[in-house]
Amino acid sequence: MVSSALIDSDLHDLQLLNKGKVRDVYATSDPDLLLFVASDRISAYDVILRNGVPDKGKVLTKISLFWFEKLKDVIPTHFVTANVEEMPEEIRKYKDTLEGRAMLVRKAKVIPLEAIVRGYITGSGWSEYKKSGTVHGIPLPTGLVESQKLPEPLFTPSTKAEQGQHDENISPEKAASLIGPELYAKVEKAALQLYKEAADFALTKGLILADTKFEFGLVPGADGTEHLILVDELLTPDSSRYWPAAAYAPGGSQPSFDKQYLRDWLTQTGFRKGLESGPEGKEGQGWVMTEAVVEGTRKRYLEALELLTGVGL
User: Fold this and answer.
1) What does the radius of gyration of the chain's CA atoms come to, in whole angstroms?
2) pLDDT tens figures, 155-212
3) Hey, is 135 helix, strand or coil?
4) Secondary structure letter of residue 14 according to DSSP
5) Nearest Cα to 208, choosing from 147, 154, 156?
6) pTM of this structure
7) Backbone angles phi, psi at 212, to 5 degrees
8) Among 18, 17, 63, 57, which residue's Cα sits nearest to residue 41?
9) Separation CA 234–CA 91 (nearest Å)
10) Each residue of 73-123: pLDDT tens digit?
11) Measured between alpha carbons, how far is 284 from 290 in angstroms, rounded to an integer?
C-alpha cells in the first residue's frame, strides 16, 4: 500500500531554519551539524504543487546516499549519517517520521551558484542555442539538434535565487566575478569530474545523465583555510535529467525519469509564467496534480532509483 505524502515535517521541538521547495532544514544541538529532511513536496517552474508525491523524499534520499558513496573520492561531502539512531538525542524521538528521508550533515557556507553541468543540449540550453547559437553565452558548433550529445560536457552556472525567484543563467565570466576566479576554477573542476564519473556509471545502467545541478559549500579545515565540499542532494531526478538510453533519439525531446512529465502536464493544463499561484481564474489557489500525474511521477522516480541502484525502497 502506498503511504500518504509527507508535505510538512513538523518537528515541533526543533528549530526550523529553512523550508525549501522540497527540504526542511533544522538546527541541532551540535552547532556544526544540520538536519536535512526530504519531504514529498514537488515543484516545477518554481511552482510548489499543493499535493505531494508519496515516498518521493525517501527516493531522493536513497539516490543521494548512493551517489555520495560512489563519488566520495572526487570531493568530500557534507553527509554525516542517515541513521536516525546515530543522530543527536533530540532528533531520535521523530524516528517514525524521519526514517529513510533524513540526513545529518555538516554546516557549510553555501556558494551562491547553481553548478550546472550539461552533457546534452536540452531545456533552457536548447532554447538559448536556437536563438543565439550559445549556451550561457558559450558559443557552440552550428547545426546541433535538440537532445544532441555535446562534444564535451559544459559547466554552465546560474545564480542561486531566493525561493519564489527564478535562477538566472549566467556566463562563466560573470560567475567567476561573483565568487572569485580561484574558487570558480575549483567548483568547475569538481562539477565536471562529478558529472563525467556519474554519467559513465549511469550509462552502464541504461540511463543517460543529460544534465545535472550541483551545489557546493565551504567548511573550515584543520589548517585554518576554507575547504570546498559538496552539499545538498546529489544526482536525483529533482536535480538531474535522466533519459532511458535505449529510447534515445536526438532531434526532439526525450522520455525521462525526472520532473519533465510534471512540467509537461503543467504546461498542457494551462500553466505559463505569471500563473505560479494557480490556474487562470483561480489565482492564489495553487496547483494540484491529478492522481494520475502523482502516480506517474512516483513511478518514474522509483524506476530511476531501481535502475541506478538495483534496489527499490
Assistant:
1) 19
2) 999 988 665 566 788 899 999 999 999 999 999 999 999 999 999 999 999 999 999 9
3) strand
4) S
5) 147
6) 0.94
7) -160, 170
8) 57
9) 23
10) 999 999 999 999 999 999 999 999 999 999 999 999 999 999 999 999 999
11) 18
84: helix, strand or coil: helix
Q: Return the C-alpha cell found at 218.
A: 565551504
Is residue 125 predicted with pLDDT exceeding 80? yes
Report the share of the chain in percent with pLDDT over 90.
Answer: 90
DSSP state letter for 247: G
The number of beta carbons lying within 10 Å of the beta carbon of residue 250 is: 14
Please give the single-letter amino acid code of residue 151: P
Residues contacting 243, CB < 8 A, separation 6+: 147, 207, 208, 210, 254, 255, 256, 257
Grid coordinates belonging to 282: 483561480
Question: Is residue 125 within 8 Å of 155, Cβ to Cβ?
Answer: no
Phi-psi region of 24 (alpha: psi -120 to 50; beta: other; left: phi over 0): beta
Q: Which of 56, 70, 40 is closest to 313 using CA atoms?
A: 56
